[in-house]
Design goal:
The chain is mainly beta and about 100 residues long. It has a domain of about 60 residues. The protein contains one helix and five strands, in the order βββββα. A hairpin with a 2-residue loop joins strand 2 and strand 3. The two termini are about 20 Å apart.
Amino acid sequence: MQCKGMVQFLNTTYRIMKVDHCSYEVIRLLDDASVGTFEIGQRLCVHPIGVAHDLLLQIAMTALKQAKVSWTRVATPSSRPSGTVPRPPRNRASCPA
């Protein structure tokens, strides 16, 4: 694992560790406990461990904003004809596990 940096959110500091391509683990420094992982791809998907989903989402967004991690959008070929309306985005709870 590679340390990508530290993020402070709500007066708590978290370490961002890269565990795989586009996959990161968030560790709370106070007790050196993992609070979950997040993946960056077409969508930002978070997988909390013992914390609220929204808390881990905000930590991941802070890491993105502070350039601790980079958003790598994967280009997908467009197969729909021009003039059609794209499907609405899926609910964040439907991120692949």
